[in-house]
Amino acid sequence: MTAELVRGQNHPLSQVRVEIRVSAGVPVLVGAALGDEHGTVRGAQWVAHPGAPTLPGIEVSGQAAADHRLAVDLAALPEAVHRVSVVLALPTQPGGALRFGAVAAPRTAVTTPDGTEIARFTLTGLDAESAVVALELYRRHDAWKVRAVGQGYARGLPALLADQGLPGAEELAAAIQEAVTASLARAVPAPRSQDASGPTARQQAASPDARQPEDGWSTGGPIDYSHPRRPAGSAPSLSSEAPVPDGQPAPPVAGDAVGWSMEERLYNQVWGMFEDLARTTAAYRSAVDFADSRLEKELDQVLADPRNRLGAAGDAAREAAQARHTQLTDQARAAFDRDLAQLTAESEVVEPALPPAYARWDNPVWHGYRVPAEPPMALRLGDLCLPENPLLRIPLLARLPLERGLWIDSGPLEGPDDTFHDSASTRRLAMESAVALAARLLAVHPAGEFAVQVVDPAGAGAEALMPLTGTGAVAGPPARGAAGVTEVLERLTRRVDLTQMAVRGGAAEALPPDVDTAQQLLIVNDFPHGFDDRAVTRLRYLADEGPAVGVHLMMVADREDAEAYGPLLDPLWRSLMRLTPVPDDHLADPWVGHAWTYEPCLVPPGSRVLVQVLTELTEARTKGK
After folding, report:
1. Parallel, antiparallel, or unpaired for β 65-73 and 58-59?
2. How many CA atoms lie within 13 A of 94 on its CB side?
3. Which of 68, 104, 303, 577 has its CA 20 to 30 A from that of 60?
4. Which residues touch 227 (CB under 8 Å, ≥6 apart)?
5. Residue 596 pLDDT more than 90?
6. 519-527 and 450-455 strand pairing
């Protein structure tokens, strides 16, 4: 079973020949620094990098790329080598990313030569860093282990190499970047498709000035799918279909993205669809804004001339301006509709192919549910859409393990079609959303590797919790009253403290036998009822420190109920991802600034799928004891 590592955690390696696989989404350079028994890199000859990619026992790529494979033969390393640090750095070429915080979190995996994963680690939490030590392979008592490091350096590769004790770190870092630049200069650009007369849609800027030629509208073709996570020339036509005419897009294919598995390809494809929808919507809105501003300017010019304010000349000028406005907006809408049609066709192919972790509850894949042998890489939290086409919904996928807690807002909300949900209605819907998400988290993990605990001080959520409590899927009955709140929080706080100490001491497996090592989800309903100041402090601690060691928080709460705490709880609310039990346009992406409408994934009315899934999971957990 693949080990999902967290920062500082280690895992034994059972064989000496392994591969290190890196997936970054953007071009990065990858190197390996060899350290002695003290972890010191003795000289430039101990660093494998694009300018010198081969050393005894290790080989790295000779250029920057989004995906890498490093071949490592631990038995062939020099006797003096006790540590191999896997290094990632961003190239310094113009137009490239300047910091890891601006790109998707890089993913690393240690595999056997045939591709079987041993351990994997996602480098989350990076911000201003442009170089990072991702993993280290180290020898202890003649046995090799891998440790997840994730140590970043805002001053880049020179600071990283200097921290490894390398003399001449500045000079070597400059030589490495020069080698990468030379490899990029030698690279032959991929040919453009015949209908791409300008830059690809993903390369176009979001600003109106960058999108509009002098006549106010670009007549480029539909979405170009050659974005970083989709290989050029992807989406080939199926063998049973007729050949695709020149200039027409190929039919969509599920899994049409790069990745090491179908699950990863579907994950990348879904996020590619999100980016495509965001970009084409930004282009359409920009074009309409340009047409509106042009119309306003032309009408101002007509009114500025007193001779044109009245009479046939003025009417003709206004009609001509309006006609140009209509032409521009019609052209914009036609291009936008063409892109939406492609994305809709892709969604219709991708949605039925999604695995349970990514699928809606009405997907037939749930009716064939079997308890998985390992957890997925991501989980569907709901759907996202934009007002221009609310029927085109993109799955909101969150990487696992969850990096932050969830807050399901149970306060009064205005739903679609101006419907208003009062507090009683949203509290009930919020608990139903929480149960559906908790059930999904349980179902996608192997039996016994994920547990759910519930704090419901007043018992207000008893009815909504029935699918969890009635099937025995939760770790125990919901905690009631202030005493129950205190007991649960004390136990989980102790687990976080002990796990942190074990990880820092390099003995993550050495936990007391009474500590449940399964990942934990704590559902808190009706907060702050039943919480005193000490319990609130512990809850904040779990929200901040818990996710890194497998303790996750799901709050079902109305923020106004906790007004008495004032700004004390502001950090808590900010640390949680806010979700709503009804569709609401509260999620904003930092890329183009759209306000996305979030819609929760609820079980269809009358469906028994949730109970069936949880029953099978509980039976598997019972058999495994």
Report:
1. antiparallel
2. 1
3. 104
4. 200, 202, 272, 275, 276
5. yes
6. parallel
Distance, CA of 188 to chain centre: 31
- Write out the two tokens for 575: 């640390």
Residue 40 makes CB contacts below 8 A (sequence gap 6+) with: 164, 165
* Separation CA 399–CA 358 (nearest Å): 11
Q: Please, what is the end-to-end C-alpha distance for the chain in angstroms?
A: 18
Sign of the dihedral defined by the CA atoms of residues 433, 439, 442, 448, in that order = positive
Looking at residue 5, its pLDDT comes to 86
pLDDT at position 189, please?
35
Taken in order 291, 297, 301, 302, the sign of the CA dihedral is: positive
Sign, CA dihedral 265-268-271-272, equals negative
Largest CA distance in the chain: 96
Q: Which of 108, 155, 153 is nearest to 135 (CA)?
A: 108
32 within 8 A of 50, measured Cβ to Cβ: no
- Pick the closest to residue 411 from 425, 400, 401, 391 (CA basis): 425
| 284 touches 336 (CB < 8 A) | yes
Average pLDDT taken over every residue of the chain = 84
What three-state secondary structure class fits 440?
helix
d(CA 609, CA 219): 48
- The residues, ordered by sequence, that sit 6+ positions from 567 with a Cβ below 8 Å of its Cβ are none
CB contact set of 364 (below 8 Å; sequence gap of 6+): 352
- Alpha-carbon distance 365 to 354, whole Å? 8
Strands 406-409 and 577-579: parallel
Locus of tokens 């140590």: 151
Cα(105)–Cα(52) distance, integer angstroms:
27
Contact 440, 381 (CB under 8 A): no
Distance CA(26)–CA(56), nearest Å, equals 28
CA–CA separation, 539 and 489 (whole Å): 7
Question: Contact at 8 Å (CB) between 530 and 457?
Answer: yes
Helix 312-353 crosses helix 262-304 at what angle (to 10 degrees)? 170
Whether the predicted pLDDT of 586 surpasses 50? yes
Q: Are 322 and 302 in contact (CB under 8 A)?
A: no
What is the CA 489 to chain-centroid distance, rounded? Answer: 29
CA 359 to chain centre: 16
CB under 8 Å to 584, separation ≥6 — which residues?
A: 413, 414, 415, 597, 598
DSSP H or E run through 398: strand 394-399
**Separation CA 625–CA 620 (nearest Å):** 9
Which residue in 554, 238, 237 sits closest to 381, CA to CA?
554
* pTM (global) more than 0.85: no
Over its C-alpha atoms, the chain yields an Rg (Å, rounded) of: 28
Which of 457, 454, 456, 458 has the alpha carbon at shortest distance from 442?
454
Amino acid at site 158: P
